[in-house]
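yo, Target of rapamycin complex subunit LST8 is done. seq:
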Amino acid sequence: MSVILCTAGYDHTIRFWEALSGICSRTIQHPESQVNRLCITPDKRFLAAAGHHTVKLYDIKSTNPNAVLTFEGHMGNVTGVAFHCEGKWMVTSSEDGTVKIWETRSGTVQRTYHHASAVNDVVIHPNQGEIISCDRGGSGNVFIWKLAQSLERTNILPLAQFNAHKEYITRVLLSPDVKKLATCSADHTAKIWEVRDLEPGQMDQLPPNPYPLEATLTGHQRWVWDCAFSADSAYLVTACSDHYARLWELSTQTIIRQYNGHHRGAVCVALNDYSEASGGSDSIDDEDSDPTPRAEQTGAERSQAQGFPLPTQEDDDITPGPRSFHTTQRLCKMPVPIEAHP
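structure:
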């Protein structure tokens, strides 16, 4: 399975898609609650599904519909999930106002950090030394933190805080090349920001606009809950409560495909198109998927040739209220900010 694309949402169903053909190849029922966030482990073996209070880990290559491990400890909806590059630990965020770091073999909590309000999302920087989070303070703020490793514990130092949207933020995500930060919001948009190096400081002395705005992706009919970058950082898939997942070409800021299949709002998406053999990209825009030379095709023409499904009807759904909701990204090696597991 070279390219893994999954979506889920309020219909309690996880859908696996054949990325190039657009065919739904497998479904997993999640009856306990809606699925808030999906995350694929870097080795493509497991899918983490965040729900109400718990995170369930599913074997991607197995036909077993049951979870192989359940992480329990949050007191509210789990809103964000991210994995260490080797899968040794996992970080989660929750509406209970905490960010937790878990040891993935045992499913036990190693660290707990507290926000002043419900945390909508958390993402690990590929250097393994920074965490980016957004909370439900109501002002659309993004927070950037530095992980400072000491002999006995890991401390979090503030790097930056900025206002990314005028409405509630549902998602923050770093691109695999670490040059872009994507944010999703209740304002019906996703935004792309240029990532820059920052130095620690006091909260009242942090730069007001640390990441310049590169693009605003419009065209969603309701809240944008989630997004996923392609391995080459050239494409973004967004999930919206209007039932659709959309594939965007970032260079032109245009929609080149839409995925339709959920009966209620699509609120989370996970994509892993890294090549297991080369460490590169199998790509959602694979050159071998169509014989026509790429130089002779536009982004939309390439997608038409690859057979991504277009929507067949207009759907109506009630826009979900404030709740919250990663996709795996290629994470680099660095000292793990928790005690080593024996």
